[in-house]
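Blinded run. Sample ID left blank on purpose so nobody reads anything into the name before looking at the predicted structure. Input follows.
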Amino acid sequence: MGLLRRGSMMKTIKQTRCISLTIKYAVLILFAFVFLFPVFQLILKSFMGDSDIIEGKLFPTAFSFSAYAKAIDVKYLWWLKNTLLIGIINMVGITLSSSLCAYGFAKLKFKGREVCFSVVIATLMLPAICMQIPLYKLYYGLGWTNTWLPLIVPGFCGGGALNIFLMRQYMRGIPDSVCEAAKVDGANKFFIYAVIVMPMCLPIAGYVMLMSFLGCWNDFMTPLLYINQESLYNLSLGLYYRYVNNAGSIPPANIQMAAATVMLIPCMILFFFFQKILINGVTVGAVKG
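Blinded prediction complete.
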């Protein structure tokens, strides 16, 4: 009797787990469908012809690349080149400057270190919208408007409080004995940073680099504020003026979707190939120290 009762209890537990997992996966699939449906529609409409767009179909009757041929012109490629340049420069500058600041807060001992770090972290509470007018006045006074300097120079001036925080937390997990041993061997502070500490921080540095590039790739407000010359547009601003704020005729939706799909491709590639870095970068940076 005891064995039969125990067997029935195990069967009931398995059935309960199976039902629970089924409900969980059903809910996750539902949420995934809700969030991914706009992306699917974006991609499908980019392959539609003009007639399918006019009729409002959900699926193309025949896949066509004509919208891509019309969307990707010389201006589009020029804006794409601008976006890549700005993103790569910021990716290097933000990672370098934030790691230097983090190294100072994590491994160098000086009076007022914790106070300075607290001030840096406190800037996270400042809404970005509150800083736009003071920054615009500053850059206007420097003569930087209608140039790439407001998009590039800030990346070399600290790299952002959040990136400094993540890099510092990771560097705090590196034993001080490693740095002390290097000092005994005659290494200076910059040598320790460049040759010893940074190679050990590649996971969090990779995360900062990826997020910096994606932030610049998707940036719209900063170019909108400071750039008026068409040849200096990044891709977000160029598409805005072409398809949204256009005094002339606006192209059909399939051409707009094709342009947006091409802009989406680098983000998807980076996520699928480097999602482990994106996930581990945050978790490791949060746990270290």
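Unblinding after everyone has recorded impressions. The radius of gyration is 26 Å.
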